[in-house]
Amino acid sequence: MALIVQKYGGTSVGSIERIEAVAEHIIKTQQLGHQVVVVLSAMSGETNRLISLAQQIDDTPNARELDVLVTTGEQISIALLAMAIIKRGHSAVSLLADQVGIQTDNRFGKARIVHINTHRLRQELEHNRISIIAGFQGRDEEANITTLGRGGTDTSAVEIAVALAADECQIYTDVDGVYTADPRVVAGAKRLKQIHFSEMIELASLGAKVLQLRSVEAAGKHHLPLRVLSSFAPDEGTLISYEENNMNSRTVVTGIAHQTQQVLFTLIGVPVGIERLANIFTLLGEFHIEVDMINQMKHNSGKIDYAFTVHSNDYAQVFEVLSTHLELLGAERVETKADVAKISAVGIGMKSHSEIVGQCFKALADAKVQALLFSTSEIKISLLVEEQYLEHAVNALHASFNLESIV
Ligand code: ASP
Ligand code: MG
Description:
- By secondary structure, this protein is an alpha/beta fold.
- It folds into two domains: 3-174, Acetylglutamate kinase-like (Carbamate kinase), CATH 3.40.1160; 256-405, 2-Layer Sandwich (VC0802-like).
- It has helices at 16-31, 46-57, 63-70, 72-87, 97-100, 119-126, 153-163, 197-205, 213-221, 245-248, 274-286, 315-324, 326-329, 356-366, 390-400; strands at residues 3-8, 35-40, 92-95, 102-104, 113-116, 130-134, 137-139, 145-147, 168-173, 194-196, 226-230, 238-241, 255-270, 294-298, 304-311, 333-346, 373-377, 380-386.
- The strands form four sheets. An eight-stranded mixed beta sheet has the order 3-6-2-1-9-11-12-10, sandwiched between helices. It has a six-stranded antiparallel beta sheet with strand order 14-15-13-16-18-17. Strands 4-5 form a two-stranded antiparallel sheet.
- Helix 7 runs parallel beside helix 9, helix 8 (197-205) packs antiparallel against helix 9 (213-221) and helix 14 (356-366) packs across helix 15.
- The structure holds aspartic acid (ASP) and magnesium ion.
- Magnesium ion binds at residues 9, 151.
């Protein structure tokens, strides 16, 4: 018998039929002899609907009240699911985060869980009652309702699983696992049976929207087995694991991720000096701008061009900040290039294969796509390309690493 925490996302409980189907699946898991604790998102579209109601009153609604509002979505879904299980003759109880004792800090809209009381949940388990917990929410020290940020139910589920020392946390969503590339971009993308935790961290931070990044980090801290699977056609999905041995052998690259909506900035003609570079990033840091790939190119004149990327949402602000501080930075001018995209090849096998960088460049060269910028880390190579070549380039890399035949 295993203790399993199951999280169901918005589309998984997006209609009454879906809620009934999820109820059946939970009961089936229990009938296999497992103990189940469920963590739920709001029905799909509901959180957005609530946010838009708030915005009809105020563009930037009061943060505390916004959390009170948006947490109601989960209150609806947990009650409906509990009813569906009870109707089938099984025992279930819906619980808000406050009733469980999910304590967070007081940062409305982006709170972090600091403690989970397991007393109530253990009691329910003893009585063989299935707890259906509202995800995404918590309470701070002063009993205010808080939320964990969009997609936060993943993190609720992982943290609850860790607190209960569950055997596995299963994330049911509308995709059936983690793929070697976005299947909408690469027709031959393959679902991975297993992915190493550090690869999953990279993919989640690269914008693969399967799991909230924080949930992966939280799972990693405790080596919690985490599985991504579809509630529409449940099978074994993709297991996020922590052992390197059985994976190293399969291939050096595990997946190709991509991120659109990037902008390339270049500060032209900056005099040499390490403090100049520090100035640039300190300045952008003050404006909470996340800078990504960074590169420098030295001219014959001895001056340096600094290139880096940011998300296109930050375009206007970065342009403004750099333009107004050109003198301080000692730069001649600032150039920008929009509509660029970042492609990353990820794999723990890269650690021991330095030739991978060369293979990436060769794949792009053969595909006649120019890399505007690149950066590497121990298990990742990122390349910046013009967005119009994105699909072509992702497919070229996927083929170059033979990911269609990954097992
Ligand atoms: N309902 C929340 C959202 O839409 C939390 C979640 O779904 O994980 O972001
Ligand atoms: Mg989600």
